[in-house]
Structure formats: structure tokens, C-alpha cells
Amino acid sequence: MEKSQEKGYCSKCNAQVSYHQVPIDHRAHLRTTLFTLGIWAPFWFLMSLSKNCVCDVCGENVSAY
Ligand SMILES: [Zn+2]
């Protein structure tokens, strides 16, 4: 298995870049869930399953594959 420095494609840099994962802000999601009377909860759940990967160079979201 690879170490923490994984490579992914950044569409903004137009290159293979190293990326890092950004932890989910659960308190913000909790507030949104309460505000939408629970409608947001499934989205929150789905987002907690998928990692939020961000380019080390420009900070854009990276599709890791
Ligand atoms: Zn980038």
C-alpha cells in the first residue's frame, strides 16, 4: 500500500499532484441537518463515506483514482 503522499489528477493544475484529505466539518453538517429538518442527513452520511481530497498545490478538489 502507498503511504500518505498519494497522487491524484487535479483539473486546475492539469497534472498529477499529491493531495491531502480534509476532515469533514461535522458541526457544520449538524447545523445544516437541523436547519433542513433532517433532509440533509442522507447527504451528510454520503459525504462522510467519501473522502474529501484537496490538491496540495492549489487547494482544488482532486478526483483520486
Ligand atoms: Zn491543483
Please summarize what this structure is:
With 65 residues, the protein is an alpha+beta fold. It contains two helices and three strands. It is elongated, with a radius of gyration of 14 Å.
Largest sheet: 3 strands, antiparallel
Counted up, domains total: 1
SS class: alpha+beta
Helix content percent band: 25-40%
Termini separation comes to 14 Å
Shape by Cα distribution: elongated
- Say how many strands there are: 3
Mean pLDDT: 86
Number of helices: 2
Gyration radius over CA = 14 Å
Strand order of the largest sheet: 1-2-3
Low-confidence stretches: none
Element-level helix/strand string: EEHHE
Give the DSSP E fraction (strand runs of 2 or more residues). 25-35%
Considering the chains and any ligands shown, give keywords for the structure.
26% strand, alpha+beta, binds zinc ion, single chain, 65 residues
What does this protein structure show overall?
With about 60 residues, the protein is an alpha+beta fold. The protein has one domain. It has 2 helices and 3 strands, in the order ββααβ. The protein has helices at about 25-35, 40-50; strands at about 5-10, 15-20, 50-55. Strands 1-2-3 form a 3-stranded antiparallel beta sheet, with no helix packed on it. A hairpin with a 4-residue loop joins β1 and β2. The longest helix is centred in the middle third of the chain and has 10 residues, at about 25-35. The chain starts with 5 loop residues before the first strand and ends in a 10-residue tail after the last strand. The relative contact order is 0.29. The mean pLDDT is about 85.
